[in-house]
Automatic annotation (TrEMBL):
Protein's UniProt keywords contain RNA-binding: no
Alphabetically ordered keywords of this record: Membrane, Transmembrane, Transmembrane helix
Name under which the protein is recorded: Stage V sporulation protein AE
Transmembrane segments: 27-45, 83-112
Keyword Transmembrane: yes
PANTHER family reported in the protein's UniProt record: STAGE V SPORULATION PROTEIN AC-RELATED (PTHR38450), STAGE V SPORULATION PROTEIN AEB (PTHR38450:SF2)
Pfam families listed in its UniProt record: SpoVAC_SpoVAEB
Biological source species: Lentibacillus halophilus
Length: 116
Protein backbone atom coordinates (compact mmCIF):
# COMPACT_ATOMS: atom_id res chain seq x y z
CA UNK A 1 0.00 0.00 0.00
CA UNK A 2 2.92 2.38 0.59
CA UNK A 3 3.59 2.45 -3.16
CA UNK A 4 -0.04 3.31 -3.87
CA UNK A 5 -0.08 6.20 -1.39
CA UNK A 6 3.31 7.45 -2.58
CA UNK A 7 1.92 7.55 -6.12
CA UNK A 8 -1.30 9.28 -5.04
CA UNK A 9 0.38 11.93 -2.88
CA UNK A 10 3.15 12.59 -5.43
CA UNK A 11 0.47 12.81 -8.12
CA UNK A 12 -1.49 15.32 -6.05
CA UNK A 13 1.60 17.54 -5.87
CA UNK A 14 1.78 17.34 -9.67
CA UNK A 15 -1.92 18.19 -10.01
CA UNK A 16 -1.47 21.22 -7.77
CA UNK A 17 1.50 22.34 -9.88
CA UNK A 18 -0.48 21.94 -13.09
CA UNK A 19 -3.35 23.97 -11.61
CA UNK A 20 -0.88 26.71 -10.68
CA UNK A 21 0.32 26.79 -14.30
CA UNK A 22 -3.00 26.43 -16.13
CA UNK A 23 -5.54 28.20 -13.93
CA UNK A 24 -3.45 30.86 -12.22
CA UNK A 25 -0.99 31.29 -15.13
CA UNK A 26 2.01 31.31 -12.80
CA UNK A 27 5.52 30.89 -14.16
CA UNK A 28 7.68 27.96 -12.99
CA UNK A 29 9.74 30.12 -10.62
CA UNK A 30 6.68 31.29 -8.71
CA UNK A 31 5.24 27.78 -8.57
CA UNK A 32 8.56 26.44 -7.28
CA UNK A 33 8.62 29.10 -4.59
CA UNK A 34 5.06 28.26 -3.55
CA UNK A 35 5.96 24.58 -3.19
CA UNK A 36 9.11 25.26 -1.15
CA UNK A 37 7.34 27.72 1.14
CA UNK A 38 4.35 25.41 1.57
CA UNK A 39 6.68 22.55 2.55
CA UNK A 40 8.37 24.84 5.08
CA UNK A 41 5.04 25.99 6.51
CA UNK A 42 3.70 22.44 6.75
CA UNK A 43 6.86 21.39 8.62
CA UNK A 44 6.63 24.43 10.87
CA UNK A 45 3.10 23.54 11.98
CA UNK A 46 3.96 19.87 12.32
CA UNK A 47 2.08 18.40 9.35
CA UNK A 48 4.84 17.45 6.93
CA UNK A 49 6.41 14.65 9.03
CA UNK A 50 3.06 12.79 9.28
CA UNK A 51 2.70 13.21 5.50
CA UNK A 52 6.14 11.63 5.00
CA UNK A 53 5.23 8.78 7.35
CA UNK A 54 2.03 8.21 5.37
CA UNK A 55 3.24 8.64 1.78
CA UNK A 56 6.98 7.91 1.92
CA UNK A 57 8.67 8.89 -1.35
CA UNK A 58 5.47 10.60 -2.49
CA UNK A 59 6.26 13.31 0.04
CA UNK A 60 10.07 13.21 0.14
CA UNK A 61 10.78 13.44 -3.59
CA UNK A 62 8.83 16.63 -4.50
CA UNK A 63 10.33 20.08 -4.07
CA UNK A 64 8.11 20.65 -1.03
CA UNK A 65 10.51 18.41 0.88
CA UNK A 66 13.26 20.99 0.34
CA UNK A 67 11.25 23.51 2.35
CA UNK A 68 10.59 20.82 4.92
CA UNK A 69 14.32 20.07 5.23
CA UNK A 70 15.19 23.76 5.63
CA UNK A 71 12.83 24.18 8.56
CA UNK A 72 13.67 20.80 10.10
CA UNK A 73 17.41 21.55 10.03
CA UNK A 74 16.92 25.03 11.42
CA UNK A 75 14.77 23.74 14.28
CA UNK A 76 17.17 20.93 15.19
CA UNK A 77 20.17 23.22 15.30
CA UNK A 78 18.25 25.95 17.14
CA UNK A 79 17.56 23.48 19.95
CA UNK A 80 21.28 22.74 20.27
CA UNK A 81 22.93 26.09 19.49
CA UNK A 82 20.27 28.74 19.94
CA UNK A 83 19.66 31.52 17.44
CA UNK A 84 22.86 30.94 15.47
CA UNK A 85 21.72 27.34 14.96
CA UNK A 86 18.81 28.57 12.86
CA UNK A 87 21.22 29.81 10.21
CA UNK A 88 23.77 27.02 10.44
CA UNK A 89 21.09 24.31 10.49
CA UNK A 90 19.71 25.41 7.14
CA UNK A 91 23.11 25.08 5.51
CA UNK A 92 24.07 21.86 7.27
CA UNK A 93 20.98 19.88 6.30
CA UNK A 94 20.74 21.06 2.69
CA UNK A 95 24.42 21.19 1.81
CA UNK A 96 24.66 17.55 0.67
CA UNK A 97 21.76 17.85 -1.77
CA UNK A 98 22.91 21.16 -3.17
CA UNK A 99 26.49 19.93 -3.48
CA UNK A 100 25.32 16.79 -5.30
CA UNK A 101 23.25 18.89 -7.71
CA UNK A 102 26.23 21.11 -8.50
CA UNK A 103 28.61 18.18 -8.97
CA UNK A 104 26.23 16.16 -11.17
CA UNK A 105 25.34 19.28 -13.15
CA UNK A 106 29.02 19.91 -13.80
CA UNK A 107 29.59 16.29 -14.86
CA UNK A 108 26.59 16.51 -17.18
CA UNK A 109 27.93 19.73 -18.69
CA UNK A 110 31.23 18.03 -19.46
CA UNK A 111 29.64 14.91 -20.92
CA UNK A 112 26.94 16.44 -23.13
CA UNK A 113 26.87 19.30 -25.61
CA UNK A 114 23.87 21.64 -25.50
CA UNK A 115 21.62 21.87 -28.56
CA UNK A 116 21.00 25.41 -29.58
Amino acid sequence: MIFFWAFVVGGLFCVIGQILFDVFKLNPGVALTIFVVSGAVLEGIGLYRPLINFAGAGATVPITNFGNQLVEGAMQEAEQHGLIGVVTGIFEVTSAGISAAIIFGLIGAFLFKPKG
